[in-house]
C-alpha cells in the first residue's frame, strides 16, 4: 500500500503492470526497432484454430447462422442498374451468448486467464466486449471488472453504454464507470495492480485469434450452402480486431479471393475525448473516431503490440453516415423481421450500397449482427440525440454534420458509400511508425515489415520514407 | 433525505483526478472538469446521500466514496416515439411491396 498512486507514477509502472496482467513476454517477438514477428506472436501466444473452436464450443460460442436478406436484396435491385444487385447475407452473430461476435474474443481470453490461474479479469470497454467478457467470466467462474467511459460531466450517460452496464451487471460483473477522458487507462492500471487480475484486452493474440473462427466458419458455411466463397465480406471497423480476425479466418479457410471491406460510421469533426462532444454522437463504436486512429497506429492499444492490424488485411475501407445506418436498421426490422444493432449495422449499410455495384449473381456478406435492447435501439438513440440538441432531418446524408444533425436518407437511393483512401492510411501508418520510434534510418527488416503491415509494395514504402528523409540501412 | 442502511446495494462516486491533474492531451473542455468514477456495491455502514461510505463491490473490493444512490435504478429505456422512423418504415414498405395494393 506504500506504492505511489499518482497519475504519473502509475503510468510509469505501465509495462510492469501489463506484463503481470497478460502473461505474454512481448520482448521475444521484438526486433528492437519498428518491426516485430507478428506471425510468430500469433502462433506462439495464441491458439490454433482447432483449439479455439474447441474452447468456444465449451461455452456455446460460434456456429451462428447465415441468413439471406432477400427483401433487402430486392430493394437494392430496385435501385441498382439492370443486372446489378448482389445477394446480401448476414452472419447472425447476435446468436452468441452475450449477443455479439465479441463473445468469440472473450471466450479465448477468459479461457486463457483461467488456464493461467488468474482469479479474475479486468477489461476496459464501453461496448459489447464488456458484456461478452462478463458473460464468459460467469460461465468459467472468474470474477470480472468492466471499466467503462460512460458519462459526461453532468453524469449524463449514453443510453447504449448504460445498457452495457446493465448487461455486465446482469452477468455478475462489477462495472466501474468514468467520465470522458483517456485517463480511463490510469484507473484500469490501478485496478489491475490492486486485484492481480488478468487484462482481458481486446488486442491480445488470443483475443484477435478468437475472431478467426468467425471468418473460417463463414467460408465453410458458404461452401456448404451455396457451393462457393462469397465475393465480398463487409466488416464494421473500429479497433481493428473484427477486420483482422475475420480476414485471418478467411485466409485459414483458403478463401483467398474474397474482398475484405471495412466500414465505419463517419464521425469526422467530433473529438473523442471531449466532454461536450461525447454525448453528441449516436454511435459509440464502429466509427471513424476509432477506425482511423487504430488503422494508422494500432500500437496505441493497451498491450505493447496490438494483434489487431487492420491495414494488413483491408482491401477497401468505406464510410457511411449515422442517418444511413439508422435507416438500414429500420429496413432490417420491417423488411427482414430482424431487430438488430444499430452499431453492427454499419457494415450492412455499406453492403446495401456495395451490392448495387455488383452483379446479381455475386454474393456480399455482412459478418456480424448484434443484439438490440433498451438503450441500444434507434428509438432511444435518436431520442437521446434530440435531447442533446441534435437535429433529425431527412435529406442527403452527405450534408450531415456529426454533432449537429443526423440526416436520414430521403430515399434509400440516397444511401451511399464513400471510399476512404487506404493509401492515405498506409502513408499515415508509416509516418506514425517513424515518428513514434524517432528514427532517421531503418533496417531492411523494418522496411519489409512496413510493406507487409501496410499491405503495400516496396515502391510505396520507399516513396513515403523518402518524403520523410528516412534512409534504409 | 435518502439514506442507506448497512447491507444496502448502493452507488458511490469518487473524484479520480482533479481538473488540474488531468492528462496533457485532454481537450480544453474536458480539462475544466474532474475525472469522476462511479461504482456499486454493498454498504458497510449506514450513510446519507452525499456522505462518505465504504462498500464491497461484486468482486469483493472495498472502496470508499460519496454515496450517490441506493438501489440505483437503470434509467435507460426505449425512449420517446420517433415519428421520423415511422416515416422510414412506411416508405420502405411502400417501395418494396407497394403499400395498399399489397393486401
Rg of chain A: 21 Å
H and E string of chain B: EEHEEEEH
**Which fold name fills CATH's third level, the topology of the domain at 3-73 in chain B?**
SH3 type barrels
Cα-based radius of gyration of chain B, to the nearest Å: 23 Å
Shape of chain B: flat
Q: Approximately how much helix is present in the residues of chain B?
A: 10-25%
- Ends distance of chain A: 48 Å
Write up this protein.
The complex is a heterodimer of chains A (473) and B (103). In chain A, helix 4 crosses helix 10 and helix 10 packs across helix 11 (241-252). In chain A, strands 1-2-10-7-8-9-13 form a seven-stranded mixed sheet, with helices on both faces. Chain A has a four-stranded parallel sheet with strand order 5-4-3-6, sandwiched between helices. Chain A is built from 18 helices and 15 strands. The termini of chain A are far apart. Chain A has helices spanning 7-12, 14-22, 38-44, 49-58, 70-79, 102-115, 128-140, 159-170, 184-195, 205-225, 241-252, 288-296, 322-336, 346-355, 378-387, 422-437, 444-453, 458-467; strands spanning 66-68, 87-91, 120-124, 143-151, 174-179, 198-199, 232-236, 259-265, 316-320, 363-366, 391-395, 405-409, 418-420, 441-442, 471-472. Chain A has three domains: 7-55 and 100-204, 3-Layer(aba) Sandwich (Rossmann fold), CATH 3.40.50.1100; 56-99 and 206-420, Rossmann fold (3-Layer(aba) Sandwich), CATH 3.40.50; 423-472. The relative contact order of chain A is 0.14. Chain A is of the alpha/beta class. Chain B has 103 residues and is of the alpha+beta class. Chain B has a domain at 3-73: SH3 type barrels. Chain B has two helices and six strands; from the N terminus they run E-E-H-E-E-E-E-H. A four-stranded antiparallel β-barrel of chain B has the order 2-3-5-6. The interface between A and B is large, with 64 and 44 residues. Strand 5 of chain A pairs antiparallel with strand 3 (35-43) of chain B.
Amino acid at each position: 500500500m506504500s506504492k505511489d498512486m499518482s497519475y504519473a507514477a502509475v503510468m510509469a509502472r505501465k509495462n510492469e503492470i501489463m506484463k503481470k496482467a497478460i502473461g505474454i513476454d512481448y520482448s521475444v517477438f521484438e526486433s528492437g526497432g519498428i518491426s516485430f514477428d507478428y506471425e510468430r506472436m500469433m502462433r506462439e501466444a495464441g491458439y490454433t484454430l482447432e483449439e479455439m473452436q474447441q474452447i468456444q464450443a465449451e461455452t456455446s460460442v460460434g456456429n451462428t447462422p447465415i441468413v439471406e436478406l432477400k427483401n433487402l436484396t430486392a430493394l437494392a435491385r430496385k435501385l441498382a442498374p439492370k443486372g446489378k444487385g448482389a445477394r446480401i447475407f448476414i452472419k447472425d452473430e447476435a446468436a452468441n451468448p452475450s449477443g455479439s461476435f465479441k463473445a468469440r474474443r472473450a471466450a479465448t481470453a477468459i479461457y486463457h486467464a483461467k488456464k493461467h490461474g488468474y482469479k479474475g479479469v479486468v477489461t476496459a470497454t464501453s461496448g459489447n466486449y464488456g458484456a461478452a467478457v462478463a458473460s464468459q467470466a460467469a460461465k468459467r467462474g472468474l470474477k470480472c471488472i468492466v471499466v467503462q467511459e460512460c458519462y459526461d460531466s453532468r453524469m449524463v450517460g449514453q443510453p447504449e453504454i448504460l445498457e452495457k452496464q446493465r448487461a455486465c451487471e446482469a452477468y455478475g460483473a462489477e462495472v466501474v464507470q468514468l467520465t470522458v477522458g483517456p485517463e480511463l487507462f490510469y484507473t484500469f492500471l490501478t485496478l489491475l495492480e490492486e486485484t492481480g487480475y488478468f487484462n482481458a484486452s481486446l488486442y491480445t493474440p488470443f483475443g484477435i485469434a478468437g475472431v478467426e473462427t468467425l471468418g473460417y466458419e463463414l467460408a465453410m458455411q458458404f461452401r456448404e450452402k451455396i457451393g462457393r466463397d462469397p465475393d465480398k465480406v463487409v466488416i464494421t471497423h473500429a479497433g481493428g480486431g473484427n477486420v483482422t480476425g475475420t480476414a485471418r479466418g478467411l485466409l485459414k479457410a483458403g478463401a483467398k479471393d474474397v474482398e475484405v471491406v471495412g466500414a465505419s460510421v463517419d464521425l469526422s469533426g467530433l473529438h473523442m475525448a471531449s466532454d461536450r462532444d461525447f454525448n453528441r454522437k449516436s454511435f459509440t463504436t464502429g466509427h471513424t473516431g476509432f477506425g482511423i486512429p487504430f488503422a494508422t497506429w494500432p500500437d496505441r492499444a493497451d498491450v505493447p503490440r496490438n494483434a489487431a492490424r487492420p491495414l494488413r488485411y483491408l482491401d477497401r475501407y468505406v464510410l457511411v453516415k449515422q442517418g444511413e445506418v439508422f435507416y438500414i436498421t429500420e429496413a432490417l426490422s420491417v423488411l427482414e423481421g430482424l431487430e438488430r444493432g444499430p452499431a453492427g449495422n454499419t457494415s450492412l449499410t455499406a453492403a446495401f450500397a456495395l451490392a448495387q455495384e455488383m452483379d446479381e449473381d455475386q454474393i456480399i456478406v455482412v459478418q456480424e449482427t448484434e443484439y438490440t435492447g433498451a438503450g441500444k435501439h434507434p428509438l432511444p438513440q435518436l431520442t437521446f440525440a434530440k435531447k442533446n440538441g441534435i437535429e433529425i432531418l431527412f435529406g442527403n446524408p452527405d450534408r450531415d454534420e456529426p454533432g449537429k444533425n443526423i440526416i436520414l436518407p430521403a430515399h434509400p437511393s440516397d444511401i451511399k458509400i464513400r471510399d476512404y483512401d487506404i493509401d492515405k492510411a498506409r502513408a499515415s501508418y508509416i509516418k506514425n511508425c517513424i515518428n513514434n520510434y524517432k528514427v532517421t534510418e531503418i533496417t531492411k527488416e523494418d522496411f519489409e515489415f512496413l510493406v507487409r503491415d501496410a499491405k503495400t509494395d516496396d515502391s510505396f514504402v520507399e516513396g513515403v520514407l523518402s518524403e520523410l528523409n528516412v534512409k534504409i540501412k | 433525505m435518502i439514506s442507506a442502511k448497512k447491507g444496502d446495494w448502493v452507488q458511490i462516486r469518487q473524484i479520480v483526478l482533479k481538473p488540474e491533474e488531468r492528462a496533457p492531451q485532454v481537450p480544453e473542455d474536458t480539462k475544466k472538469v474532474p475525472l469522476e468514477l462511479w461504482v456499486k456495491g454493498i454498504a458497510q455502514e449506514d450513510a446519507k446521500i452525499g456522505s462518505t461510505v465504504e462498500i464491497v463491490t461484486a468482486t469483493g473490493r472495498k472502496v470508499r466514496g460519496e454515496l450517490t444512490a441506493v438501489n440505483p435504478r437503470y434509467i435507460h429505456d426505449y425512449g420517446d416515439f420517433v415519428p421520423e422512423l415511422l416515416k422510414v418504415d412506411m416508405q420502405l414498405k411502400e417501395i418494396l411491396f407497394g403499400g395498399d395494393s399489397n393486401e
